[in-house]
Structures are given as structure tokens and as C-alpha cells.
From TrEMBL:
Positions of transmembrane segments: 33-53
Domain of life from the UniProt record: Eukaryota
Residue ranges the record marks as coiled coil: none
Boundaries of every GH16 domain copy: 21-185
Molecular functions per Gene Ontology: hydrolase activity, hydrolyzing O-glycosyl compounds
Keyword terms of this UniProt record: Glycosidase, Hydrolase, Membrane, Transmembrane, Transmembrane helix
InterPro entries per the UniProt record, alphabetical: Beta-glucanase-like, Beta-glucanase/XTH, Beta_glucanase, ConA-like_dom_sf
Stated name of the protein: GH16 domain-containing protein
GO biological process, one term: carbohydrate metabolic process
Catalytic residues of the enzyme: E130 (nucleophile), E134 (nucleophile)
Organism, as annotated: Gossypium klotzschianum
Length: 185
């Protein structure tokens, strides 16, 4: 059995505002962590602020994946500087065999074309397993797309795209990946 790391990335190429709330319920190692993320983007530079609700510090559980100069730690607050050229992302330091990841997300209003917010679980290596959950930006008036994919032994081709039947910009909505030795839901 392969263990998986949690990764979150946001790629931004637009003026926008979004809020995310990340809840992790992962049995190995045992923990339940809750994070709140708020993003505000200007013409060239923006900030994502991540306030930790749990007693654990962000840097004890996660590590930046790229753009180290875009991460600013202020106690229990993490700020990610984003611009039109660089996104930012972080990954869990621990690996997990089974678990559930839930994100409560309020997405960008209006023209969010060029914005992708994604979270996924992935094992290492060329024959990796991966569970993806991505929100694809849109132009004003078009519905958001949610894109999911599952990779088994490095092979994907299980991509699914769905138009949301509700407005994900008006309130927080919960999205989860639950996996165990028998299924991924």
C-alpha cells in the first residue's frame, strides 16, 4: 500500500478574492486539523492568509512546495504572496495511508479565468497513485467547473468535469476526498 501526501496549490492569473477552509481528518498520524484561508488578489500582487484554528503550527504540518519567497509566517497566520506570474503551494510533511480531507471553499466571483485552486493526495514515484479535486476558473456568467481525476499506478484517464448546480462564490461549500483500502469517494 502506498502512503499519500496532501498538497494544495493555487495558480492565479486574475484579479480576484476567494476564501478557503481546510479540514483534515487523517488517522496516520492521528490528528484533526482545521485551517482557514482567505485570498485577496490585486492587479499584480495579492495575499492568501491562512489562520490556524488548531493548536498545531502550519510549519509543523506542512512545507511550501515552491515560491519560498511568497510565504510569510506571522505567528498563527500564513500569508502567501501571489502575482500574475507565480502561484504557490504547500504539501503535508507526513504521509497518510487512509483518511478524509474536506475543504470548505468560497470561490472567486466574476471573471476568474486563469485561476485554478486544487487539492490532491499523491504518492511518490512514476507509478504513483493520486486523487485530484480542482476548481477551474471561468469568465463572468459561466458556471464553475469542478474537475476530478484518479491516477492508479501512474495512469489517469479518469477525468470527470462537472458544472456546479449552485453558486460557489456566495457561500462556503464542503468538498471531500475519502479513501480507504476499498474505495475513493
Amino acid at each position: 500500500m502506498r502512503t499519500h501526501s496532501l498538497l494544495l496549490q493555487t495558480i492565479i492569473r486574475s484579479k480576484s478574492f476567494t476564501e478557503l477552509h481546510l479540514s483534515l481528518s487523517l488517522p496516520f498520524p492521528s490528528m484533526a486539523v482545521s485551517f482557514k484561508m482567505c485570498a485577496s488578489f490585486g492587479l499584480f500582487v495579492g495575499l492568501i492568509m491562512l489562520g490556524l484554528v488548531s493548536s498545531a503550527k502550519f510549519d509543523e504540518l506542512f512545507q511550501p512546495g515552491w515560491a519560498m519567497d511568497h510565504f510569510v509566517y506571522e505567528g498563527e497566520l500564513l500569508k502567501l504572496k501571489l502575482d500574475n506570474y507565480s502561484g504557490a503551494g504547500f504539501a503535508s510533511k507526513s504521509k497518510y495511508l487512509f483518511g478524509k480531507v474536506t475543504m470548505q471553499i468560497k470561490l472567486v466571483e466574476g471573471d476568474s479565468a486563469g485561476t485554478v485552486t486544487a487539492y490532491y493526495m499523491s504518492s511518490d514515484g512514476p507509478n504513483h497513485n493520486e486523487f485530484d479535486f480542482e476548481f477551474l476558473g471561468n469568465t463572468t456568467g459561466e458556471p464553475y467547473l469542478v474537475q476530478t481525476n484518479v491516477y492508479v499506478n501512474g495512469v489517469g484517464n479518469r477525468e470527470q468535469r462537472m458544472n456546479l448546480w449552485f453558486d460557489p462564490t456566495k457561500d462556503f461549500h464542503s468538498y471531500s476526498i475519502l479513501w480507504n483500502q476499498r474505495q475513493v469517494v
